[in-house]
Specification:
Number of helices: 14
CATH superfamily: Glutaconate Coenzyme A-transferase
Number of strands: 13
Order of helices and strands: HEHEEHEEHHEHEHEEEEHEHEHHHHH
CATH topology: Glutaconate Coenzyme A-transferase
Largest sheet: 8 strands, mixed
Radius of gyration: 19 Å
Strand content: 15-25%
Number of domains: 1
Length: about 300
């Protein structure tokens, strides 16, 4: 547990806790509430050989892979859904064997996190029976139910070294408020050895309590206020995802050279996230916050 009276730090300090070869859980999912500011800072700091785990993810995983930061990827899906298609850098690395792919499924990962939270050596699952996921996970075993005789798959606890989570609101003590759906963020917080959090805004504890504490501060080692810290993913209800920027990234990630150019232009900036937001410009960012003004305004963000 982390009981420091004030857990506010800068982004570089927060990311520095994550070491090479750490098992890192990524919060959020797909194009929602991804910890992109932390991802970019890990790349700036030259992190290598990470084992990343999550439910279903997109640009966060793909960007880490493009930067050469990932050794093992344990996800149920990595891509940009039907909107922008497959994840180019991840696919290239998976096909080329430069990363180890340990494909899993959301329910199995959830079950492993619950085993960790409850201090159990394993929990049983059914969903992956008869699939090749057993081949990708030699740590899984089989167990016979003592009541029914059914053969089940036994999965061990999953205990990430760090959970990287982005939230719309937090306080100085590390308490976090998330809008639903929480995806696996609550479970990551309870199962991981440490939570490193970015928030769009740090507010007084009384204000946070009025909204509700989703993840209590005793799980959180460090919290950083980073406006638009999930960009180009969304952070509901503050801003929508930036489809235009994400499309630009997908195009850039189609080749190693253009991916390197994207990293040079958008990640390896001397001023870090301050330079990143300045480069994006205030007007495009303000446009993302206007998504809820009308249906037409919302639709206009996705053309």
């Amino acid at each position: 547990m982390y009981l420091d009276p004030d857990k506010r730090v800068d982004l570089a300090t927060a990311a520095s806790h994550v070491r090479d070869a750490s098992l890192v859980a990524l919060g959020g999912a797909l194009t929602s509430r991804l910890p992109m500011a932390l991802v970019r800072e890990l790349i700036r700091q030259g992190r290598r050989d990470l084992h990343v785990v999550g439910s279903a993810h997109g640009m966060d995983v793909d960007l880490l892979v493009a930067a050469g930061a990932v050794a093992v990827c344990e996800e149920s899906y990595v891509g940009f859904e039907q909107d922008l298609g497959l994840a180019p850098a991840y696919r290239r690395a998976a096909e080329g064997g430069t990363i180890t792919v340990k494909e899993s499924c959301c329910v199995t990962i959830l079950t492993q996190l619950r085993a960790a939270e409850m201090g159990l050596p394993f929990l049983p699952v059914r969903g992956i029976k008869g699939t090749d996921m057993r081949r990708l996970h030699p740590e899984y075993a089989e167990i016979t139910c003592p009541f029914t005789g059914e053969l089940l798959v036994a999965v061990p606890p999953l205990i990430p070294d760090f959970a990287l989570i982005h939230a719309p609101l937090g306080d100085q003590f590390g308490n976090l408020f998330l809008e639903q759906p929480y995806v696996l963020d609550e479970r990551f917080a309870g199962a991981s050895r440490s939570v490193i959090a970015t928030v769009d805004q740090i507010v007084p504890t009384d204000t946070l309590a009025e909204r509700g504490v989703t993840i209590p501060g005793y799980f959180v080692q460090a919290v950083v206020e980073v406006p638009f810290g999930a960009h180009p993913a969304s952070s509901y209800p503050n801003y929508a995802y930036d489809r235009q920027h994400m499309s630009r990234y997908v195009t850039a990630a189609s080749t190693p050279d253009s991916a390197e150019a994207y990293l040079a232009e958008w990640v390896h900036l001397p001023g870090g996230e301050d330079d990143y937001r300045a480069k994006l410009g205030p007007e495009p960012l303000a446009r993302l916050t206007s998504w809820s003004q009308s249906v037409d305004q919302w639709k206009g963000l996705f053309v």
